[in-house]
Amino acid sequence: MPLSWPRPRATSRSSRHFPHLVRPASVCSCPTVSLGSVRSLIHCNRTRSEHIHRVHKHRFASAGAPRNMNIFRLTGDLSHLAAIIILLLKIWKTRSCAGISGKSQVLFALVFTTRYLDLLTSFISLYNTTMKIIYIGCAYATVYLIYIKFKATYDGNHDTFRVEFLVVPVGGLAFLVNHDFSPLEILWTFSIYLESVAILPQLFMISKTGEAETITTHYLFFLGLYRALYLINWIWRFYFEGFFDMIAIVAGVVQTILYCDFFYLYVTKVLKGKKLSLPA
C-alpha cells in the first residue's frame, strides 16, 4: 500500500474557527512513496554503514597488540622496521646519504603522517601506538639527515623523479575511491595509494646511476619483503576471518609488482656478492 500524508477534512466547525488548518488538496498532498523503496533505502544505508564499521573494526583489531595478529602481519611489521633501521644506520655510519632518494623518503614521511592521524583520536594498544610513533619519527629523522645534516652528500642531480605525477593522481583517486567520505578515511586511503608508488623515485635513481650500494639493496629488500608479507596476511585473514580490504589489497599488489624485478636482481646478484644495477 502506498504511503501518503493524510489530508485534513474541512468541516464547518474547523473552517469557521480554525481556517488555517484547512488547505487546498494541491498543497497538502505529497508524492506517494513505495513502502518497498523506503525499506530498500533503509537496508542499503544500513548495509553500507555496517560494512564501513566492519572495515574499521577489523583494521583497528589487526593493528592492535601482537596477540591479535597473525604471524605474517607481525613479521611484516618487523621487516618494515628493519628496513627503516638499516637505512638510518647506513646514513649515520657512513655520514653520507649518497644513493638514497630524498624524494622517496619525503613521500614515506607523508604516508605515515596521513595514515596515523588517528593517534590524535583513538588508542588501540601500546604496541600500535609505539610502532606508529617510531615510523613517523624515523621517517622525519631520515628526511632531516638527507636534506639538512648530510645535505652536502645528497645526490640531487640523479634524484629527479617528478613526484607531483604521483601525489596529484593519488590524491584524486583517494577522493573518488574510499570506504567512507570523511577526512580521516580519505587521508588513510591516500596513504595506502601513495605508499604503493612511493618507492618509484628510489628505483628511478638506481636506474639512472646504474648501480646501488649493498646496504641500500638490503634496505629495499626488507621494504619489499614487508609488503609481500602483508599480502600473505590479507590472504590469511580472508581465509580465517572472512574479511578483506580491497583498497589495501590492490595497492599492495601494485607495490609488490614494482619490487619483482628488484627481487630477482637481489637474489641473482647481491646474494652472490655482486653489485646491483637496474636496467636503464
Automatic annotation (TrEMBL):
Keywords linked to the UniProt accession: Cytoplasmic vesicle, Endoplasmic reticulum, ER-Golgi transport, Membrane, Protein transport, Receptor, Transmembrane, Transmembrane helix, Transport
Biological process, per Gene Ontology: protein retention in ER lumen; protein transport; vesicle-mediated transport
Pfam family name, one: ER_lumen_recept
Record bears the keyword Aminoacyl-tRNA synthetase: no
Membrane topology qualifier: Multi-pass membrane protein
Listed InterPro entries: ER_ret_rcpt (IPR000133)
Keyword field contains Membrane: yes
GO cellular component: COPI-coated vesicle membrane; endoplasmic reticulum membrane; Golgi membrane
GO terms of molecular function: ER retention sequence binding
Transmembrane segment boundaries: 133-150, 162-181, 187-207, 219-240, 246-267
Top-level taxonomic group: Eukaryota
Compartments reported by the entry: Cytoplasmic vesicle, COPI-coated vesicle membrane; Endoplasmic reticulum membrane; Golgi apparatus membrane
Entry-linked PANTHER family: ER LUMEN PROTEIN RETAINING RECEPTOR
Family affiliation: Belongs to the ERD2 family.
Protein's name according to its UniProt entry: ER lumen protein-retaining receptor
The encoding gene: LOC115059855
